[in-house]
Amino acid sequence: MRVRATIAYDGTDYGGFQLQSNARTIQGEIERALLRITGTPIRILAAGRTDAGVHAEGQVIAFDTTWRHGVGKLRDALNALLPDSIAVFELSEADPSFHPRYDALSRCYRYTIYRAEVCHPLYRRYSLCVTRPIDLEAMRLATRAILGEHDFGGFGTPPQGDNSVRRVLKASWSQEGPWLYFDIEANAFLYRMVRMLVGTLLRVGHGALSPEAFAEVLVTQDRRRSGPAAPARGLCLKAVRYSTD
Length: 245
Description:
Elements: E1 2-9, H1 26-38, E2 45-46, E3 55-64, H2 71-81, E4 86-94, E5 106-115, E6 128-130, H3 136-143, E7 148-151, E8 165-176, E9 179-186, H4 193-205, H5 211-220, E10 235-241
Parallel strand pairs: 3-10, 5-6
Antiparallel strand pairs: 1-3, 1-4, 2-3, 5-9, 5-10, 7-8, 8-9
Helix pairs in contact: 1-2, 3-4, 3-5
């Protein structure tokens, strides 16, 4: 049977989601646990291959297994063997054709910034601390330019092929006390696209780039004027949306 699962993880100590020969990865930990549980090597599929240091709250994976003891017991067995930095939440039987990446309609990411005069050591794993003043309204104005379908070649590279056109469905900034949140939903993302957008928008917030100049970067795809990419620790994959949800 094909199994679909929603997982969360703290990506701080991992080289990313995807298997690597020289680094500890989320995929490697899950497949290692599945091998111990089932006695059979299992390759998992994922909705997105998050980078080193990036976190997830709603990553979706799928895999095939001959497990016959119920999906609830499989979830419990996985959580018993996985490190504390990875957890399996929803786990259910899926259609044999289900693919978490190709069937996804959109992905939702959040980037978290902690704005304070002094960086708090307890927040450093999951947010970017910014001690300089930020013009949030300028950043909000600039963010409007990325809504809709555009070529985002100035803010990232395609993970496969050369098509850098993506459709952004939602993008906004919100504030709760010292916390700033950048939420974005798109049909797909380029490699480092969210982090490059945040890094460039922070330049707007610091007055180094105007909202109009930010829009020009989108049009001209001039990477010399974009970024640098914001650190991975502030980024989290919040959810993946499907037509069946």
